[in-house]
Design goal:
The chain is an alpha/beta fold. It has 12 helices and 6 strands.
């Protein structure tokens, strides 16, 4: 197993040759910062490439990459970025559509190698871009593969579902807490407080004082606003 990992690592290092332009991008919400190096880690940009997170900014990055390739006689490009957040989705997919290779760098790799450039743990966008580029040049990356539209839609749906499941659990816990404080006898009538009848009760007469003002018949009538079959023996017994 270890031999196989070493083989993969060697292949990634060999991917970066003397004719490869390595670009590291530090992602942000509105402005990205890119730095270019060669396979030895020598910086090829006089100043960081700043570009916006929009189509015009992407074109500026592509134009800068082509100029650097021509200037340094490099026919290959690898663009690296951290695999965090959603800021890199658009630029990564756009670059792939332009025929430019994109790879992902583990954020922990970037964090652990911050001192490799200047022997300092300091952090800024141009430095982070260089650290990312360094990691790529040494083979510490994972190839980026764009996902199909159906897969991306499913991932969004799953993420949204997880969000609402967590939020629903929090709201249910708050309702349990309120009932434990204000109406501890409530569970004697409703073992499951999230049934349609119970939710109708909590909506219209949630406190003990509200219940005492109503007759069982009035309670059944109110339940009828939210339920198809509010009465019957079960409904009258529940109201009583």
């Amino acid at each position: 197993m270890k031999s196989r990992l070493n083989k993969v690592q060697n292949q990634r290092v060999e991917r970066i040759s003397t004719s490869t332009l390595v670009i590291g991008i530090d992602m942000a919400k509105e402005k990205h910062v890119a730095q270019a190096i060669n396979f030895r880690g020598i910086v090829l940009t006089n100043r960081p490439i700043m570009f916006s997170n929009e189509h015009a900014g992407f074109e500026h990055l592509k134009s800068s990459i082509r100029k650097l390739q021509k200037m340094h006689s490099m026919n290959d490009v690898v663009v690296g970025m951290e695999s965090t957040g959603h800021y890199g989705f658009n630029i990564a997919n756009w670059l792939v559509n332009q025929g430019i290779s994109v790879v992902l760098v583990n954020p922990m790799t970037t964090k652990r190698n911050k001192e490799s450039r200047d022997n300092s743990p300091s952090k800024n966008d141009p430095k982070d871009a260089l650290v990312i580029a360094d990691a790529v040049s040494r083979g510490f990356y994972t190839p980026f593969s764009p996902k199909e539209e159906a897969f991306r839609r499913i991932r969004v749906i799953v993420t949204n579902r997880e969000h609402w499941v967590v939020k629903s659990g929090r709201i249910k816990n708050r309702i349990h807490r309120w009932l434990d404080i204000r109406f501890p006898e409530y569970r004697q009538a409703f073992e499951d407080i999230f049934t349609p009848r119970s939710l109708a009760t909590l909506r219209r007469f949630p406190a003990p004082s509200d219940v005492l003002q109503l007759t069982p018949e009035q309670m059944v009538h109110i339940w009828g606003e939210y339920m198809a079959r509010p009465g019957g023996v079960r409904g009258r017994n529940k109201a009583t």
